[in-house]
Amino acid sequence: MDSRNLPKHTIIEHDLLTKIKNGTYKPDTLIPKETELMEIYHVSRPTVRQAIQALVNKGLLAKRKRRGTIVVQNKISQEFAHVIESYNDEVKNKGLTPRTHVILLQKELPTQEVYNSLKITKDDYVFKLVRLRYADDQPVVLVTSYIPYKIFPKMDQFDFEDVSLYETMNSNGCPIDQVRRKIEVLAADETTADMLNIDMNDPIFYFHTIGFTTDDVPAEYSIAKYRGDINSFEIYIKR
């Protein structure tokens, strides 16, 4: 069909899509404002909004409060749901560059949720490790891990921006052999949204994980908050 016979909003949609595909508008960057697009295409605001909404519905654009409309990055397919693998290895296998920022590492007494999950008493100290993890400089997941002090008393001697938690535990005599995970989809609170560079109330994948040693001793309890807009999860089921 001759593009001249297409509705104006469809022509704009196709042009925006072309610019997304050829990299003119890169992932996680803002496209021009509505007023700018009105001038570029010589159309009304409703026509521009119709074109943008069509690409939002296809998952190619996303509207961000107080920011504008951004190009959505291709989703990162995670095997996290069924494979015990370090984050760095998983991200590298996708052809991306991983990076970890340690926000907190401290020794503290556990909350009821933590000591129940780790099968310890409320007087047993734990290490709390909070990490913000990136792929190609894009924040992907906020992880809070709790490790019983009596299981890994030297934990605070390691720099977890450079080393893997599971690999370090393994080399120090407390390997994680199996895990149990529960997933929820929740709305991001203000702190989580700020750290993950999303809007408040945007959906996040919320994982609770308990890691066990070969002797079935709980050695780790973690909460991982994955961005909903750039992550998907693969789950394999075998009969």
UniProtKB/TrEMBL annotation:
Name the UniProt key words of this record, in alphabetical order.
Answer: DNA-binding, Transcription, Transcription regulation
S-adenosyl-L-methionine: present as a keyword of the record? no
Record InterPro entries? Bact_HTH_transcr_reg (IPR050679), Chorismate_lyase_/UTRA_dom_sf (IPR028978), Tscrpt_reg_HTH_GntR (IPR000524), UTRA (IPR011663), WH-like_DNA-bd_sf (IPR036388), WH_DNA-bd_sf (IPR036390)
Q: Which residues form the HTH gntR-type domain?
A: 6-74
The highest taxon in the source lineage is Bacteria
Task: Write out the GO biological process terms.
Answer: negative regulation of DNA-templated transcription
User: Do the record's keywords include Zinc?
Assistant: no
GO molecular function annotation = DNA binding; DNA-binding transcription factor activity
Protein name (Swiss-Prot/TrEMBL): GntR family transcriptional regulator
Q: What is the lineage of its organism?
A: Bacteria, Bacillati, Bacillota, Bacilli, Lactobacillales
